[in-house]
Design goal:
16 strands, binds ligand JD8, 12 helices, alpha/beta, five-stranded parallel beta sheet
Length: 394
C-alpha cells in the first residue's frame, strides 16, 4: 500500500500543528501518510519576505503575489499531484470530493490569506496538474488553513487501512446512505431523567436497525431535505422538512404547470377533457391568486404541491389541491388538506370542495379526512361536492 504525501503551503505553518495530533499522526507513524507543512515565505527573496501586494483594479485589502506561489509549486508539484485550493468561491467540499481526493497519491494544499491568491497561480498550475478549488461552507474565514485541516482529516481517514473499523465509514453521515446519522447512546440507561430508547436495550438487531434508519430519514428530512429525493423528504417528515408558504404572483407559472400536469391525470381518470383547470390560462391563475388564499409547498426549490381556500359566507371553499404526479402516495395530499383546513378563518363553519366523481384516490383521501357528499350536488354528474364541519365549530 503506497504512502500518500500531503504538502501544505501557508504563511502560518503553526496553524497546521493539529495535524500531528489526531488521526494523521498514527498514519504517519505506520508509513501510510507523509504530511509536510511549508512556510510560503521560503519562496520570497526580499528582505521583508513579502507575500502580498495591492489589488489590480483597486479595492480593499491585499492580494497574495504569484511569484512565491509559482516557485513553491515548481518545487513541490509532481505529475501525480492534485492541487487543492481552499476558497469561499470554490465548489462545496463534500464527502464525495474527499473520497475523490483520497485516491490521489499526492495532494498539495495551498492556503491563501488576505483577499486571496493571484488567480494566475491557479490558472498556471491547472495547465500542469488537476486543481480543485473547494469551499468548506457558506461562511467567510480569514484564510485557507482551517479548511486545509478539515480537508486533510476528511481525506486521510478514508485512506485504505487507516480507519480501525472501515465498517463505520459506511454508517456515518454523508456516507453511502446519504442520510444523516441516527442518534447514539451509551451507559447509563437513565441520565438526568432522560432514558435511552427502549428499542436499543432490547437486543433485537432488526428492530434496532429499523429504528436507526427511521431516525436517520426523519433527521435528514427535517435538517437536510436537500440530501433526500423529494419522495423520501416527503415520506420522512411532516411539512416541516419542506418550504411551505402562501403563494405570490411569482409562483403563477409553476402553479399553472402543476395544475395542467395534475388535471391531465384527472382527465384520464374521469375520461373527459371538459375539466375547468385544464382550460385555464396563466392570467386565470394570476387572477385566482388575488381572490383565493393559496399555499405552495417546495422541496429543494421545486414546486411539489399546492392548495387554496376562500371564504364564501360561512363556508371555507377548498380547491386546487395538487401534488406533483411523481410524488403521489406519500401523504402530501393529506398534509396539504390539513394545512388549508387549519387556515379556515374563524367565521367558517363548513369546509367544502369539489372533486372528480371518478377520482378514486382523491375520494378515498377526502372520505378518510371526514368529508361526505353534500345534500345538494352540482348539475355536472362528473363532479362531486363534498362537505365537512370545521372541527370544533358548531
Ligand atoms: C481561503 C483568504 C479570506 C476570503 C476576503 C476574508 C474556504 N468556506 C470558506 N470561507 N472562507 C474560506 C477562505 C477564506 C480565505 C481564503 C479560504 C484565503 N481568505 C478572504 C474572501 C473575502 N477574505 C473558505 N475554503
Amino acid at each position: 500500500m503506497s504512502a500518500v504525501r500531503i504538502d501544505v503551503v501557508t504563511i502560518f505553518p503553526g496553524y497546521l500543528d493539529p495535524l500531528g495530533l489526531s488521526l494523521p499522526g498514527r498514519a504517519q507513524d505506520n508509513g501510510l501518510l507523509e504530511v509536510h507543512v511549508h512556510d510560503l515565505r521560503r519562496w520570497t527573496h526580499d528582505r521583508h519576505r513579502t507575500v502580498d501586494d495591492t489589488p489590480y483594479g483597486g479595492g480593499a485589502g491585499m492580494v497574495m503575489r504569484p511569484e512565491p506561489w509559482g516557485e513553491a509549486l515548481d518545487e513541490l508539484v509532481t505529475p501525480d499531484t492534485v492541487v487543492v485550493v481552499p476558497t469561499p468561491a470554490g465548489e462545496p467540499f463534500t464527502q464525495a470530493v474527499a473520497a475523490e481526493l483520497a485516491t490521489a497519491s499526492h495532494l498539495l494544499v495551498a492556503c491563501g490569506r488576505y483577499e486571496g491568491i493571484d488567480q494566475r497561480v491557479v490558472d498556471e498550475a491547472a495547465t500542469r496538474v488537476p486543481v480543485r478549488e473547494v469551499s468548506l461552507g457558506d461562511y467567510v474565514l480569514n484564510g485557507g488553513e482551517v479548511a486545509a485541516l478539515a480537508v486533510v482529516e476528511a481525506v486521510v481517514r478514508l485512506l485504505p487501512g487507516f480507519m480501525g473499523n472501515p465498517a463505520s465509514l459506511v454508517e456515518e453521515s454523508h456516507g453511502e446512505s446519504g442520510l444523516l446519522e441516527h442518534p447514539v447512546y451509551t451507559r447509563p440507561p437513565q441520565w438526568r431523567g432522560h432514558d435511552v430508547p427502549d428499542v436499543l436495550l432490547g437486543g433485537d438487531h432488526a428492530r434496532i436497525a429499523a429504528w436507526r434508519h427511521e431516525q436517520s430519514v426523519r433527521r435528514t428530512a427535517q435538517r437536510r431535505p436537500d440530501l433526500l429525493h423529494p419522495a423520501r423528504a416527503l415520506a420522512g417528515a411532516g411539512l416541516e422538512g419542506l418550504e411551505v408558504r402562501t403563494a405570490t404572483q411569482a409562483d403563477a407559472g409553476e402553479l399553472l404547470t402543476l395544475q395542467l400536469a395534475c388535471w391531465v391525470t384527472e382527465a384520464h381518470a374521469n375520461a373527459t377533457w371538459e375539466i375547468p383547470p385544464l382550460h385555464e390560462t396563466l392570467a386565470d391563475v394570476q387572477g385566482s391568486l388575488r381572490t383565493w388564499t393559496t399555499f405552495v409547498v417546495r422541496a429543494q426549490g421545486r414546486l411539489v404541491g399546492a392548495v387554496r381556500g376562500r371564504l364564501a359566507g360561512e363556508t371555507w371553499d377548498v380547491g386546487r389541491l395538487m401534488v406533483a404526479p411523481d410524488l403521489r402516495g406519500l401523504g402530501l395530499g393529506r398534509r396539504l388538506l390539513e394545512l388549508v383546513e387549519d387556515a379556515a378563518p374563524g367565521e367558517a363553519r363548513t369546509l367544502s370542495l369539489v372533486t372528480g366523481a371518478a377520482s378514486g384516490r382523491n375520494l378515498r383521501m377526502y372520505r378518510r379526512a371526514g368529508y361526505r357528499r353534500a345534500r345538494h350536488q352540482p348539475a355536472d354528474p362528473g363532479v362531486v361536492l363534498l362537505e365537512k364541519r370545521v372541527p370544533g365549530r358548531a
